[in-house]
Predict the structure.
Amino acid sequence: MTWRPSKQTPEILAIIQSALECGCTRRASANIAGIAERTFYDWLDNEAADGPFRSMIEAAESEFERRVLTGAISHPATALKLLERRQRKDWYPPTEKVQIELTPNLEVVWDDGAAGDTPGTPAAEEAPAPAGDTEQPG
């Protein structure tokens, strides 16, 4: 296997830092620097929590936030929307999780307007009375 030099050069790191400070996403910053997004995250994952690359990333993202907040004086709504989208965990308003439990409770009521009819069938027309039970009005 041949050895390749690392792409993590001071020039590439400066490009990433500058892009992040201007508000670019990590993906866009990697693309601007000419590296794959996976490479960017590999560098981040392979470094200690207080390593120089991770520290640079956090500082650059904090600088962007500072710039937005400085501009918030003249455009506060725009600044808040931008921060809500970019720094969601820090700026997005908390939402409550609501759990809804549904229990089936079905009650079928048939009202056809005719008493004694079979539920669910249209009201039957008046049937003629049996032959022996007819009453004559009188």
Summary: The chain has a mean pLDDT of 78. Residues 10-91 form one domain. The radius of gyration is 37 Å.
